[in-house]
Write a structure and sequence with these properties.
It is a single chain. With 306 residues, the protein is an alpha/beta fold. The protein contains twelve helices and seven strands. Strands 3-2-1-4-5-7-6 form a seven-stranded mixed sheet, sandwiched between helices. Helix 1 runs parallel beside helix 3 and helix 2 runs parallel beside helix 3. It is globular. The termini are far apart.
């Protein structure tokens, strides 16, 4: 049975059984809590890029949703199709549970995402249903076409979320969210600009614990892995070694983010505190959507302090 047939059987089932998504008949209520929705192309991208800040918002009592726009069904070197989609949806759901947030995996084939009208409507509805104050996505230029098209689709939704006769089955937002890009190292057409950098020192261990759930990606190598690469990682029956192996990589990565975007950390935390920050996640403000003043950003990122 090929992967398309398997997905027809398991695709939608795995989304609802394993993702932890909440069925919404209307928008998330407006009760003073912030509503943040983070889009990634695959069931690991939003977790990698925004897992720390998601945990911070969740700890402060706000609502965060991580959305994978594809089901990840070719994101492994040795397996594919419905079984992999089901597995990766379950992994993503467990990450979300450990971070204290919600997740959803859309049933679109990995590697086949396109910026169509249908998908623009899907993204628009998701943003509206979540009554989003903040929307995070990839930038629309990246090594992977799925990443690029997530950025394009979210950009396209940045205006349409307020247009009442576009997707009239879902209520338009009263105000435009703040649209953010997660960080990357691509330099053309222009390098990532860290308008906002967030210290994640207090939740770094929680983020690593959460990412331990992404076994197909972290320990087995994902789409471009191999048997040799999988065997180079500590085995599943040695969880303490596995965690250290993963921790070493993510501490280095997050330290690099903090060092690279130290200037932005100084802007939001002050020079003295910024010097003490070890780990960070960074975001660029999209020129579409809300263009907030510094005092508005501090309200949207309440862990910055006054």
């Amino acid at each position: 049975m090929n992967r398309y047939a398997l997905n027809a059987i398991t695709g939608m089932v795995c989304v609802w059984l394993f993702s932890g998504v909440q069925s919404l008949d209307a928008q998330v209520k407006d009760d003073g809590k912030l509503n943040i929705i983070c889009f990634g192309a695959h069931p690991d991208d939003a977790e990698y890029k925004s897992g720390g800040v998601a945990a911070l918002w969740a700890k402060a009592g706000h609502r965060v949703k991580l959305v994978s726009v594809t089901n990840g069904d070719i994101g492994h070197w040795a397996m594919a199709g419905g079984p992999l989609a089901k597995r990766r949806t379950a992994e993503s759901g467990l990450v979300a549970k450990r971070l204290g947030v919600t997740s959803e995996v859309l049933d679109i084939h990995d590697g086949e995402l396109e910026p169509t009208l249908e998908n623009r409507k899907k993204i628009t509805r998701l943003i509206r249903e979540w009554n989003a104050d903040i929307v995070i996505s990839h930038r629309p230029w990246d090594y992977h076409p799925d990443h690029r098209y997530v950025g394009v689709l979210v950009q396209d939704a940045a205006y349409m979320v307020q247009v009442p006769h576009f997707c009239p089955d879902s209520p338009p937002l009263k105000s435009n969210p703040l649209f953010l890009y997660s960080s990357d190292r691509f330099r053309k057409p222009y390098p990532f600009q860290a308008d906002i950098a967030v210290a994640i020192d207090s939740v770094m261990e929680q983020k690593i614990d959460a990412l331990m759930a992404l076994e197909s990606q972290t320990f087995e190598g994902g789409a471009l892995g191999s048997q040799a690469q999988m065997e180079a990682a500590p085995p599943a029956n040695q969880p303490e070694l596995r965690r250290k192996w993963l921790s070493d990589r993510w501490l280095a990565r997050s330290t690099s983010e903090a060092d690279l975007f130290r200037g932005s950390l100084q802007k939001w935390y002050g020079e003295d505190k910024a010097k003490q920050i070890k780990y960070a996640e960074a975001f660029e403000i999209c020129e579409y959507g809300r263009q907030p003043k510094p005092e508005e950003i501090r309200k949207l990122f309440p862990f910055f302090g006054p």
